[in-house]
């Protein structure tokens, strides 16, 4: 090969190498530019932008916080669990309060819409102002007990302006408690409406009256009473029992600071399995073998419970079981609660001479009745006698500071 040809080949080779080098460099930078656009464009679309004080575009970084290590992650989880538990507790409390408010609203609405006309002081003053009272005394009565009610009105239950004064000055509410007949609006209901219009001392319940329905009536009474009146205590008493109101109030005052109290004459009678006898218990088998006795509970003639227990009944009334005897039912509702049972025998004194002797000894009875009759025997005729011989005196009531 000649020198000339070798020079020409060498020149061509040199040119080819230069172009190859330039092409490589161009491809490299092109690839870098393309790769950079692929990586940055999606991120750029997601990055929020704000304007700074100088009017320039400012990119706000997000998601750049370094991930915590395992220890910090565990601490955060525990904190989140604690916060969730606290939120659940707060929610439970809120639900409980809402249930109570719902029960109160329902009871008030049913009492107004379905009951007889309620006296003006209940409709206006009591539910709206919700002032604090010492106690609400509900006197359990029936359609056929007009004469019993009159005997109570003429003895230990203040009437008219005195009853209003008792509420305003002493914080004591007293009402006869009754539901409705099976034929709502019938002659029985109209008779109660006329009596209530005259005296204004009834609390009408959304309840159908019946001897076998006393447990249900007791639940409805406490639920309605706690909805209408904010009191420290709620008392149930039969309409054939004599009560010294001032002594009752003073007795309850001694337990005012306790949260959950159940006060009465505690007993534990036999569970009667034999059909046809009085106080027969159809569910006797739940209390063990035949011949067993009930758990301790207050006798039904008179007992008192604190506000927390009345509220408990109000909220849970639809799931509280009813036994044949209302005093047993009430005791069963509290048997599993942290409630203090207070056995006070002054709540179940006998009629004269028993209550009379105790009064002379300075130990005035709260309530008097005959055990043989589960109330004062022939109470219509004897209530005034018991009141005269065992009553605390009207001046005691007005002079006692609660």
From TrEMBL:
It is found in: Golgi apparatus membrane. InterPro entries: DUF4094, Glyco_trans_31. Residues 16-108 form the DUF4094 domain. Coiled coil: none annotated. Its cofactor is Mn(2+). It is a single-pass type II membrane protein. This is Hexosyltransferase.
């Amino acid at each position: 090969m000649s020198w000339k040809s070798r020079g020409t080949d060498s020149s061509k080779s040199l040119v080819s190498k230069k172009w190859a080098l330039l092409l490589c460099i161009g491809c490299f930078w092109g690839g870098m530019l393309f790769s950079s656009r692929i990586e940055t464009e999606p991120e750029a679309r997601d990055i929020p932008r704000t304007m700074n004080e100088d009017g320039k575009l400012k990119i706000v970084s997000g998601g750049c916080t370094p991930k915590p290590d395992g220890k910090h992650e565990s601490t955060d989880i525990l904190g989140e669990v604690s916060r969730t538990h606290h939120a659940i507790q707060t929610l439970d409390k809120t639900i409980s309060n809402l249930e109570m408010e719902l029960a109160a609203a329902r009871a008030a609405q049913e009492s107004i819409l379905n009951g007889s006309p309620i006296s003006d002081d209940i409709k206006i003053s009591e539910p709206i102002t919700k002032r604090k009272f010492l106690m609400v005394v509900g006197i359990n009565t029936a359609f056929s007990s007009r004469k019993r009610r009159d005997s109570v009105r003429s003895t230990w239950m203040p009437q008219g302006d005195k009853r209003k004064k008792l509420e305003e000055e002493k914080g004591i509410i007293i009402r006869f408690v009754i539901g409705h007949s099976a034929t709502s609006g019938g002659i029985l209901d109209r008779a109660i409406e006329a009596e209530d219009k005259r005296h204004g001392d009834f609390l009408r319940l959304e309840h159908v009256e019946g001897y076998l329905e006393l447990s249900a009536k007791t639940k409805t009474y406490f639920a309605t009473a706690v909805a209408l009146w904010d009191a420290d205590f709620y008392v149930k008493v039969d309409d054939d029992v004599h009560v010294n109101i001032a002594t009752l109030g003073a007795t309850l005052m001694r337990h005012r600071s306790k949260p959950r109290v159940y006060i009465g004459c505690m007993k534990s009678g036999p569970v009667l399995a034999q059909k046809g006898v009085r106080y027969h218990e159809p569910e006797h088998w739940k209390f063990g073998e035949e011949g067993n006795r009930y758990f301790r509970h207050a006798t039904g003639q008179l007992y008192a419970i604190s506000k927390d227990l009345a509220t408990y009944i109000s909220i849970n009334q639809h799931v509280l079981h009813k036994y044949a005897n209302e005093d047993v039912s009430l005791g069963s509702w509290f048997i599993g609660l942290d409630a203090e049972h207070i056995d006070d025998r002054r709540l179940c004194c006998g009629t004269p001479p028993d209550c009379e002797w105790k009064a002379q000894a300075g130990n005035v009875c709260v309530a008097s009745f005959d055990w043989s009759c589960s109330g004062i025997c022939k109470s219509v005729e004897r209530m005034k006698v018991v009141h005269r011989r065992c009553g605390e005196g009207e001046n005691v009531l007005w002079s006692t500071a609660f």
